[in-house]
Design goal:
This protein is an alpha+beta fold and about 80 residues long. It has two helices and two strands, in the order ββαα. Strand 1 and strand 2 form a beta hairpin.
Length: about 80
């Protein structure tokens, strides 16, 4: 879960967070500038969080590759809709 959008020059730290669900404990990583911001982001997940889909794979890439990947995904999505 490394999808972090930030302005140039902003330094994000990764905070280890946990929560309980049905008597089990789970962990996740939250990118934030401060511990307070990480806590606020955790609260926001409870209020505005949604499931975008099942994570199939994570492929590390340089930030500059993002535009190329978006273009490829857009073309694939258009082609799949037409089939």
């Amino acid at each position: 879960m490394q999808a972090v959008t930030a302005k140039v020059g902003e330094d994000f730290k990764v905070y280890a967070c946990s929560y309980r669900y049905r008597d089990r404990e789970y962990a996740l990583k939250i990118p934030a500038r401060t511990e307070i911001e990480a806590s606020n982001r955790m609260r926001a997940i409870g209020i505005t969080g949604k499931i975008d889909g099942e994570l199939i794979a994570e492929i590390p890439a340089a930030p500059s590759v993002g535009l190329v990947v978006r273009a490829i995904c857009a073309v694939r999505n258009l082609l799949n809709r037409r089939l």
